[in-house]
Design brief:
The chain is α+β, with helices and mostly antiparallel strands and 146 residues long. It has a domain of 100 residues: Roll (Nuclear Transport Factor 2, Chain: A). The chain contains two helices and five strands. Strands 3-4-5 form a three-stranded antiparallel beta sheet, with helices on one face. Strands 1-2 form a two-stranded antiparallel sheet.
Amino acid sequence: MPGLDRLLDPATRDYQDDGLGGYVETTTLEPQIYHQLTGRLNQWAADPDAGCDLYLVPPKANDANIREREAAMQHALQPFIREGAADQLHTKVVRELLNRLGLEAELNDLQDATRDPLEDDAGGGYGPGQADPSPASLDLSTPEEV
């Protein structure tokens, strides 16, 4: 659902401080995707699609586990595509460091990334046609030992 959400810091996995006593906000899907992939599937009674079952796949990096982890990630991101918030989902296995593999997912965020400053309670914001300057990348790779 389009709107503002607090942006997460990829290093701390906590909300990003704006330096003014508040938090950095974004109109992208990044926070929702983070929560979708790090939450456990079927843990929210009101939303059976919330979460991911990556935690059920052993972390050992063999072909079967990597395929299962990739499938779990694709399944977890499907609600965003069904709702029309995103499209063009692509996942891949990447070699991050020596003896480590990671999973990467990429999708096209279809939400409107513009805000009218008149609708912003604080009086600031992104005007018509101005994109949200928050980063679009989200590192949710799951390291695997090879």
